[in-house]
From TrEMBL, chains A, B:
GO terms for biological process: polyamine metabolic process. It comes from Anabas testudineus (Climbing perch). Residues 3-164 form the N-acetyltransferase domain. The keyword Lipoprotein does not apply. GO terms for molecular function: N-acetyltransferase activity. InterPro entries: Acyl_CoA_acyltransferase, Diverse_Substrate_AcTransf, GNAT_dom. This is N-acetyltransferase domain-containing protein.
């Protein structure tokens, strides 16, 4: 199937927001989505954007049964290793179920890596749930290492009240 | 012990670079450090910086036996959740061994959270090796969750030749 991958524009945020929700439904956690296309527009299209996004688009003749032509997205941002320098982090990679098996996911992933290369990024990282065998296999087949399995890295998170407490305990300037 | 936490300046990059190496020695991987203070200056003090950094400074009378007054740092950057919005990631938190036990690590951590709060960040995340019990305990005591243990998140990485391959396989524009 023919498809095109391009940088998302502000005007694509509604479609990206629609797919973020589809992905959350697939992950059985749709009630976790607290942001809308307005936040995406604000945070991705400002000076010093918090993220960048690519979308996959199919021609009109291949549109979905609902009439959609934007059928996948990859949302990523720049991170930093104090050992290696510039790196990238892929937050979401999604292709609508009826468009899978056409190389669109692989195309999005490769395009993110290509963008990273132009910025001299030396790593592309992401996180996968341990029960998500299809995704683990997808990335492993493309050469990625599972650092939690091989080196024992654990993800730690502060949020909600414990994050609020931390922020409130910051030393004050004299 | 009296100490001050402030945003790192370009002029602090040599000291931050020195502490990055000390941390790598502690982690028994000093040969992994490929970047120097020049890269830190370039990547942290440009338009759209790749990271931000705080340093902890002690007054002259408390300087280290080598005469150092910059005794700790926290290096972090902004990330993004497509469910929750703006988030922060703490890449490194380090205090020189002889200055530990004075609340400097906690001070740096809280200050990062405070900076995040001013930018409306709703999460602060980081990674810890599973054998690093003191660090796991430190964060847990402050309320952080271990998402690898509780939800099964695994870290996945592309780098070196497999990243190069990915980038080279990106779909070309027609």
């Amino acid at each position: 199937m023919q498809f095109k991958i391009r940088a998302a524009t502000k005007g694509d945020c509604k479609e990206v927001s629609r797919m973020i929700m589809e992905l959350a439904v697939y992950e059985k956690m749709p009630d976790q989505v607290k942001i809308s296309h307005e936040e995406l527009e604000r945070d991705g299209f400002c000076q010093n954007p918090f993220f960048e996004c690519l979308v996959a688009e199919v021609p009109e003749e291949h549109k979905s049964k609902e009439g959609l032509t934007i059928v996948g997205y990859a949302l990523y941002f720049y991170t930093y290793s104090t050992w290696k320098g510039r790196t990238q982090y892929l937050e979401d990679l999604y292709v609508m179920p009826e468009f899978r098996g056409n190389g669109i996911g692989k195309g999005l992933l490769s395009k993110v890596a290509e963008v990273g290369k132009t910025k001299e990024c030396v790593r592309l990282q992401l996180s996968v749930l341990n029960w998500n065998k299809p995704s683990l296999d997808f990335y492993a087949a493309k050469g990625a290492q599972d650092l939690t399995a091989s080196e024992g890295w654990h993800f730690i998170r502060f949020d909600g009240q414990n994050l609020e407490n931390l922020a409130n305990e910051a030393p004050k300037d004299e």
